[in-house]
Design a protein that fits this description.
The protein has helices at 15-26, 34-47, 55-63, 92-101, 105-121, 131-135, 149-162, 169-185, 207-221; strands at 4-8, 29-32, 66-70, 76-80, 83-84, 124-128, 141-146, 198-201. The chain has 222 residues and is of the alpha/beta class. It has one domain (4-221): Rossmann fold (3-Layer(aba) Sandwich). The strands form two sheets. It has a five-stranded parallel sheet. Helix 1 (15-26) packs across helix 9 (207-221), helix 2 packs across helix 4 and helix 4 packs parallel to helix 8. The radius of gyration is 17 Å and the shape is globular. It binds 2'-deoxycytidine-5'-monophosphate (DC).
């Protein structure tokens, strides 16, 4: 049977970079489920569809195909109707749209099997918001990774600056706070620690220490 690690937590807690490294160390694949919501957000933006429960969203979902594959270096690639959109979904606008569209129940339902099927066939570290609570409630290891909003905003701000984006720290912090609110207050599958999860706070940990901590929590629990 394959091993599943459910890794949940708020935006910017470092889940993706920490999980990528931990997955490499353990020879698991890393699955970033946020990319799937971002991809549907991009599809909605392109079609001018509003991110709220509606026939329009249902219609959109029936017309698109979202796929997740891995390139030769083992990195995840998301496809929207066969187009590689992995780069296009990484803007602050796409983040906000993803946060809104992810509150629509039919969108969450649409992505459920895709996520579960990947975990059936691979040892995975799956990162998201509802992996331990909804997608893989029986995962062998469940971790809730968090850090203070300021620490998370600081990290995301640096990341965006390094990519050459012209952003202000205050805007990034406000986005983090707004997305935390959206993610924890939506009715369907809100972000919250799952039953039996291990809480890991990385506010005071640097990257290497965070990876070490996650790898040791996983090893202790499998
Ligand atoms: O992890 P991320 O920032 O790429 O996620 C983008 C948005 O998608 C985020 O605002 C919350 C949502 N999301 C979700 O609702 N459930 C998941 N499993 C993953 C992401």
């Amino acid at each position: 049977m394959s091993i599943a690690v459910a890794l949940d937590g708020p935006a910017g807690a470092g889940k993706s970079s920490i999980a990528k490294r931990a997955a490499k160390a353990l020879d698991f694949i890393y699955v970033d489920t946020g990319a799937l919501y971002r991809t549907i957000g991009l599809a909605a933006t392109r079609k001018g569809v509003e991110a709220k429960p509606s026939e329009e969203v249902e219609n959109l979902l029936s017309k698109i195909k979202v796929d997740l594959t891995f390139n030769d270096s083992g990195e995840q690639v998301v496809l929207l109707n066969g187009e590689d959109v992995s780069g296009l979904i990484r803007t602050p606008e796409a983040s906000m749209m993803a946060s809104k569209i992810s509150a629509v129940p039919s969108v969450r339902e649409y992505l459920l099997d895709l996520q579960r099927n990947i975990a059936k066939s691979h040892d995975v570290i799956m990162d998201g918001r509802d992996i331990g609570t909804v997608v893989l409630p029986d995962a062998q290891v469940k971790i809730f990774l968090t850090a203070s909003p300021e620490a998370r905003a600081e990290r995301r701000y640096k990341e965006l600056c390094e990519k050459g984006m012209n952003v202000k720290y205050e805007d990034v912090l406000n986005d983090v706070i707004q997305r935390d609110y959206n993610d924890t207050h939506r009715e369907t599958a809100p972000l919250k620690p799952s039953e039996g999860c291990v809480m890991v706070d990385t506010t005071e940990l640097d990257f290497e220490q965070s990876v070490e901590k996650i790898v040791s929590v996983i090893k202790e629990n499998i």
